[in-house]
């Protein structure tokens, strides 16, 4: 082991960045450009292809190097250092069983929340409550069903995304939740059919990062700790867990799917938004179900110990997705700090856990160092002292609802049918004017106008529209009601996708209700049909209508729910419920047909998009309870659409990355992420493929004009990052406990166990069988030498210099149309290809402004060191290449308005 230590030191010296002297840069503000350039850029030396396997198992190429020990928290940032000091003072008072209690969930259903840790009653620490989710409080009443994460991303409005985080945090707080399982910044959206893409913010790492960080800040400002999920590579639902489904031959599945990710894509795409949320102070990170490079994400030491805790400097705790833990000792040594819901996957109610009593045992028998357990617990407690707005929960600050029953009174453990009858649900109203305003504003700004030929929108009575038809199941309520469990009903208006991120609606305003009410007030006649199959039914109505509004949908969600053969992920990109034929049928009869697509992601529009009677097309991501009201306001022009597509709508399914459905020979499906860094628009640009609608696209009722590009150098770029400060010293070390196993025995005299509940205690036979010597088979590469600061670490999210502002960019935007409206300025950068080839452009800024007709405002962007960097796999660091950087101010990823250039170091 000493030998390894020496190698490490040598490596450290070798990789120490050498050249951090400022590079000269020259700025040009007005450059001629092709407004829709797309070309494949080539570097001097092409990268080796990622894999290339034929006949060999991908695990031979995709494996993770070991990295041990798990870094100690509290060595970055003085504020966190103080917080760790306070946390350690508490932890050193705890017994081993008390510590284990905080790391292990008490079991599925064993407490009011989706996840509940054990408590430390002696020190006044209650069972900590972890609750879904990212779009509002799950499994309770009197809460708001907020627009989805995807809707938030579609607004491209940073301040509004932040407000949404605050509003969601406030409602969790009102219900007594301690930690929110959100936001979601993975899936990143590699696969357009991915079932959970609607939970996160859109198919671009920069967008995910900005939106994720703003959400974390909003949530934590309201006093709830944010747990960001899913770390990492959880890009599809199929095969995420062994035993989830027996259909389709999936009972043969031996291991969860392995997301095989190259190092550059890992840094430039998948880790990118996690760096942002860590920088904004997120207290927790949830590791995902899938494997990464053939090791489970929750026990991959390279991922958790190295990338997350060392490189990104994460000081909070890592919690498993529900049942994503697969080993006890290994997962702890690899950096997992908390397991949820406590049991082994799908073995709910058995009390069987990898941790709980087994963790206690592994500490008593010396296999897991006490220092590791102490660090796990300290990481769970420290964020409550580090973030000003958080406060370690106390016993008078506990949830006042139950996720397991909606009755006011029920047994204490309704899921177990156990315990006395107690008051479970206090029906606390968590909603407020603030929540409702935010939810409605996000819904309004998340609507994207894709087509408006002939300017039939907004609808104006003056245009002779006297009779309208509202058609499609998507326009009205589902016949089974609004709140089927986890929003799995799809035969009606969609307020969200399905799964753990779904929230009960306190009420829903459907498109039919809102549009009908408005149209009536304008003296119109309103016809309605929700018959999607027997199309004759709508023939006459469409004939009579001056304007038809057809609401169609496409749904998906989390992998534990199957709807119409869609196991979470979508099987196809066509519309559900015969939507394409419905549109065709109506548009053949009605010359002004508006199609409204309510979907969790892109759909194929080719069958009808060019039809000249389809005069208008609107896309809505899941918008929550106000979906109909927001749509009505857009259609009638109360609100000017300002949403932008957070993904590319392709013409062909083959342009998207398919869901892996092949079990593989060994029943361990392998998902090689061979799009590398070219996800979404980067791929279409690289191969010069014309999409139907590009990333960032969205029309307005008004027109904007851009001018006055002005790029300013704030700090000189450097090729390499400066060496970071050393890790801070640890002032308070926790002594090892004396460790008398008798102390950990089940205190039978104190209480009777709840069936299936996970306790931290040992039984007599455990104590007798504790071995004397250490004969544990440690994982390969295991050691206990703590490292000095790696060259690219040293701050939250990585080397602090990555966040240094190098250039600031300004431009002027003027509303030259007749309506007031919002404009999203998008900044894309094209890097030189001096060392490696890069995408034709990547999003590196967005700024949304609202303008009255004739009004001008300035839009503003900061270009950070990281925004110009590429991840160099060989030297394992971020590098700013010398060469020419193009700076595009654009209205979409393919509509460039202004172009400047920065020459760096040439
Ligand atoms: C953009 O490209 C398309 C086809 O590739 C071309 O028809 C169009 O004229 C181009 N637009 C501009 C402004 O160059
Ligand atoms: C996964 O394997 C690839 C290919 O060997 C490597 O570049 C990458 O760093 C590995 N990632 C992890 C997390 O182990
Ligand atoms: C562990 O948590 C359980 C559940 O909250 C509690 O009953 C028990 O007393 C706790 N044990 C210790 C040692 O604090
Ligand atoms: C619900 O819990 C919150 C937070 O603990 C508290 O502020 C509120 O008063 C409680 N309400 C009821 C009705 O118990
Ligand atoms: C210590 O206990 C853990 C948990 O039961 C077990 O996995 C491990 O093998 C034990 N170590 C030894 C040396 O027996
Ligand atoms: C696509 O999936 C939906 C939902 O399962 C289904 O209704 C539709 O028929 C499918 N379309 C095609 C072309 O298979």
Structure, briefly:
It is built from 20 helices and 30 strands. The protein is of the alpha/beta class and 906 residues long.
Low-confidence stretches: 1-16, 38-48
Query: In the CATH hierarchy, what is the class of the domain at 81-429 and 728-744?
Result: Alpha Beta
Q: Write down the CATH topology of the domain at 81-429 and 728-744.
A: TIM Barrel
Give a count of the beta strands, DSSP E runs of length 2 or more: 30
Which range best describes the helical content: under 10%, 10-25%, 25-40%, 40-55%, 55-70% or over 70%?
Answer: 10-25%
* Rg estimate, integer Å: 28 Å
The overall pLDDT average reads: 93
Give the full name of the CATH homologous superfamily of the domain at 81-429 and 728-744.
Answer: Glycoside hydrolase, family 3, N-terminal domain
User: If strands are numbered along the chain, what order do they take across the biggest sheet?
Assistant: 2-3-4-5-7-10
Keywords:
30 strands, Rossmann fold, TIM Barrel, six-stranded mixed sheet
What can you see in these coordinates?
This is Probable beta-glucosidase A. By secondary structure, the protein is α/β, with parallel strands linked by helices. Among the domains are: 81-429 and 728-744, Alpha-Beta Barrel (TIM Barrel), CATH 3.20.20.300; 448-640, 3-Layer(aba) Sandwich (Rossmann fold). A 6-stranded mixed β-sheet has the order 2-3-4-5-7-10. The chain has a 6-stranded mixed β-sheet with strand order 13-20-19-16-14-15, with helices on both faces. α4 crosses α14, α5 packs antiparallel against α14 and α15 (511-521) packs across α18. The relative contact order is 0.16. It binds 2-acetamido-2-deoxy-beta-D-glucopyranose (6 copies).
């Amino acid at each position: 082991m000493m030998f390894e230590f020496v190698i490490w030191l040598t490596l450290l010296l070798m990789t120490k960045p050498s050249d951090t002297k400022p590079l000269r840069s020259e700025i040009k503000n007005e450059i001629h450009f092709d407004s829709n350039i797309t070309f494949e850029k080539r570097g001097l030396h092409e990268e080796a292809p990622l894999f290339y396997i034929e006949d060999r198992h991908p695990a031979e190429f995709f494996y993770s190097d070991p990295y041990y020990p798990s870094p100690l928290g509290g060595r970055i940032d003085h504020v966190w250092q103080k917080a760790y000091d306070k946390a350690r003072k508490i932890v050193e008072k705890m017994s081993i069983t008390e510590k284990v209690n905080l790391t292990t969930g008490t079991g599925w259903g064993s407490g009011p929340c989706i996840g509940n840790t054990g408590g430390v009653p002696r020190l006044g620490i209650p069972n900590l409550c972890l609750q879904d989710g990212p779009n509002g409080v799950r499994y309770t009443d009197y809460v708001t069903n907020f627009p989805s994460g995807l809707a938030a991303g579609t607004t491209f409005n940073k301040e509004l995304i932040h407000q949404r985080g605050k509003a969601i945090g406030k409602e969790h707080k009102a219900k007594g939740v301690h930690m929110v399982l959100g936001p979601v910044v993975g899936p990143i959206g590699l696969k357009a059919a991915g079932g959970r893409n609607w939970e996160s913010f859109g198919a671009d790492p920069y967008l995910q990062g900005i939106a994720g960080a703003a959400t974390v800040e909003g949530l934590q400002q309201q006093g709830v700790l944010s747990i960001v999920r899913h770390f990492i590579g959880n890009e599809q639902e199929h095969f995420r867990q062994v035993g989830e489904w027996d259909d389709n031959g999936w009972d043969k599945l031996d291991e969860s799917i392995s997301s095989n990710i190259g190092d550059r894509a890992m840094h430039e795409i998948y880790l990118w938004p996690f760096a942002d949320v860590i920088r904004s102070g997120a207290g927790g990170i949830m590791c995902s179900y899938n494997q990464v490079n053939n090791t489970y994400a929750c026990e991959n030491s390279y991922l958790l110990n190295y990338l997350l805790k060392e490189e990104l400097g994460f000081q909070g705790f890592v919690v498993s997705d529900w049942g994503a833990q697969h080993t006890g000792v290994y997962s702890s040594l690899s950096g997992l700090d908390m397991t949820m819901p406590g049991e082994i996957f799908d073995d709910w109610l058995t009390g069987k856990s990898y941790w709980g009593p087994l963790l206690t045992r592994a500490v008593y028998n010396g296999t897991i160092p006490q220092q590791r357990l102490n660090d796990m617990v300290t990481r769970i407690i420290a964020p409550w002292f580090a973030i000003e707005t958080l406060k370690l929960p106390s016993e008078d600050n506990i949830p006042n609802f139950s996720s397991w029953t909606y009755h006011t009174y029920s047994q204490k453990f309704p899921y177990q049918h156990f315990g006395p009858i107690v008051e479970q649900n206090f029906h606390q109203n968590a909603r407020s004017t603030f929540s409702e305003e935010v939810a409605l504003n996000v819904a309004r700004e998340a609507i994207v106008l894709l087509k408006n030929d002939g300017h039939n929108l907004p609808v104006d009575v003056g245009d002779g529209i006297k009779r309208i038809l509202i058609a499609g199941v998507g326009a009205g309520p589902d016949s089974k009601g609004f709140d089927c469990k986890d929003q799995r009903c799809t035969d009606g208006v969609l307020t969200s996708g399905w799964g753990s991120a779904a929230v009960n609606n306190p009420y829903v305003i459907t498109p039919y209700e809102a549009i009908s009410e408005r149209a009536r007030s304008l003296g119109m006649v309103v016809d309605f049909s929700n018959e999607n199959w027997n199309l004759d039914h709508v023939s006459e109505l469409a004939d009579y209508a001056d304007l038809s509004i057809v609401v169609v949908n496409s749904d998906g969600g989390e992998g534990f729910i199957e709807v119409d053969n869609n196991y979470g992920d979508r099987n196809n990109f066509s519309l559900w419920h015969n939507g394409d034929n419905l549109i065709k049928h109506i548009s053949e009869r009605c010359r002004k047909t508006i199609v409204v697509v309510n979907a969790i992601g892109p759909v194929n529009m080719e069958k009808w998009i060019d039809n000249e009677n389809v005069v208008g097309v609107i896309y809505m991501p899941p918008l929550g309870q106000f979906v109909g009201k927001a749509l009505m306001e857009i259609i009638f022009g109360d609100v000017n659409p300002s949403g932008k597509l957070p993904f590319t709508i392709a013409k062909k399914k083959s342009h998207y990355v398919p869901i892996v459905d092949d079990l593989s020979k060994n029943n361990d499906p392998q998902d090689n992420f061979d799009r590398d860094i070219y996800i979404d628009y980067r791929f279409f640009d690289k191969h010069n493929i014309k999409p139907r609608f590009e990333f960032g696209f969205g029309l307005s009722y008004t027109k904007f004009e851009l001018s006055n590009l002005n790029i300013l150098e704030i700090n000189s770029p450097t090729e390499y990052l400066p060496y970071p400060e050393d890790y801070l010293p640890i002032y308070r070390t926790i002594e090892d406990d004396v460790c008398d196993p008798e102390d950990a025995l089940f205190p039978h005299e104190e209480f009777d166990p709840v069936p299936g509940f996970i306790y931290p205690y040992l039984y007599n036979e455990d104590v007798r069988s504790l071995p004397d010597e250490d004969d544990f088979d440690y994982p390969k590469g295991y050691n206990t030498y703590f490292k000095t600061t790696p060259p690219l670490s040293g701050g939250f999210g990585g080397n602090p210099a990555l966040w240094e502002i190098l250039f600031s960019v300004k431009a002027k935007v003027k509303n030259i149309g007749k309506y007031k409206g919002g404009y999203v300025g998008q900044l894309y950068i094209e890097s030189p290809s001096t060392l490696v080839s890069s995408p034709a452009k990547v999003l590196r800024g967005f700024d949304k402004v609202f303008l009255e007709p004739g009004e001008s405002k300035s839009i503003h962007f900061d270009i950070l060191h990281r925004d110009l960097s590429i991840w160099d796999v060989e030297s394992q660091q971020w590098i700013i290449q010398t060469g020419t950087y193009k700076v595009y101010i654009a209205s979409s990823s393919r509509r460039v308005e202004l172009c400047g250039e920065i020459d760096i170091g040439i």
